[in-house]
Amino acid sequence: MLITENARFSVAPMMDWTDRHCRFFHRLLTRHALLYTEMVTAPAVIHGDRRRLLGFSPQEHPVALQLGGSDPVQLAEAVRIACDFGYDEINLNVGCPSDRVQNGAFGACLMREPERVAECVSAMIAASRAAGGPEITVKCRIGVDEQEPSVALRDFLRIVSAAGVSRFAIHARKAWLQGLSPKENRTVPPLDYALVQAVRAENPTLHLSLNGGIETLDAAIRHLDEGFEGVMVGRAAYQEPWATLCDVDERIFGTALRDTCERDIVQAMADYAGQVEAPVKSIGRHMLGLFAGQPGAKIWRRYLSEHMYLPDAGPHTLIDAMRAMDRVPAHV
Q: Cβ distance 83 to 132 under 8 Å?
């Protein structure tokens, strides 16, 4: 299956959330959705512990690496390094509004500099092609601060697509770099789906994934039915993973529904926890929402929260949390 087909439904890159343990967990819920790493800066890739920063399990495919940076030379070098790890896509972050990103003059700041972004992606594409690597894509906002989104987004797509990018994920909110926290920037600026829809119609050769405020699988499917080439879901996939992801393969990719349940997922994650060199708290924290909205969900969350940080915590902690659900009345 082509990665552009997988991109019909993707789980957004989320800092401190979509690490390799989270992605392994999500892959148990959907075989076909495109998964993204957390953003990794180009200098970190070049100078840091590459195996720790870029390593992932083969079971995570299809998986995309998101890079942060604004220096074409550094980004090209980071792409060359990443190509050796076998990612299915490499994405440039032009949407993160955090202070750290602003101080580094990349992320959402780059919405003001589409020409620089074009230089960056041109260098990244050349590096990937030379290494036999994957497609280079971009995740962006509709604008920042004082920009008029209807102008900024159109200019951005025109200039960056001319440099060779044909696939964009667009968070349909403006980012306010001053006055709003990163958390507030995910919810406070109003969504403008209509603008992204209009731009999509004006650029039929581009693959545009809609991101921002998509809280359920039903909502994601509605956007696909409206003509979007892809949807990208963030917090909903993390906070309510089973409800959001378990039917994706059947309803979006048209494959047979798997005969599995939440408890099968817990067992699989316990097996995984026994195979990797990581404390179970690093794995269990991604699973707190697995039973969201179901009887016993509070017990599951409470047990994990209280036990996975203890010195004797291990893979058994995940199984114990599941068993704790069976020892209380169903309404708890």
A: yes
Closest CA to 26 of 66, 59, 71, 54: 59
Q: What beta strand segments (E) does the chain contain? A: 9-11, 34-41, 63-68, 89-94, 135-140, 167-171, 207-211, 230-233
Cα–Cα distance for residue pair 10/5, rounded to 1 Å: 10
Please write down the HEC assignment for all residues of 203-236: CCCCEEEEECCCCCHHHHHHHHHCCCCEEEECHH
- Whole-angstrom Cα distance, residue 295 to residue 219? 24
User: Active-site residue 96, yes or no?
Assistant: yes
Q: Which two tokens stand for residue 152?
A: 């900024």
The pLDDT score that the predictor gives to residue 101 is: 62
Domains in the chain: ranges and CATH: 3-251 (3.20.20.70), 262-326 (1.20.120.1460)
> Going by C-beta distance under 8 Å and a sequence separation of 6 or more, which residues neighbour residue 55?
20, 85
Sign (positive or negative) of CA dihedral 264, 268, 271, 277: negative
Angle at 137 between CA 55 and CA 52, to 5 degrees: 15
pTM, entire model: 0.94
What mean pLDDT is predicted for residues 281-305?
96
First to last CA, the chain: 43
Q: By C-alpha distance, which of 44, 107, 33, 114 is closest to 74?
A: 44
Which member of 22, 83, 96, 246 is catalytic?
Answer: 96
- State residue 64 phi and psi, 5-degree precision: -115, 140
Task: Give the mean pLDDT of the chain.
Answer: 94
Q: How confident is the model over 170-185, as a mean pLDDT?
A: 85
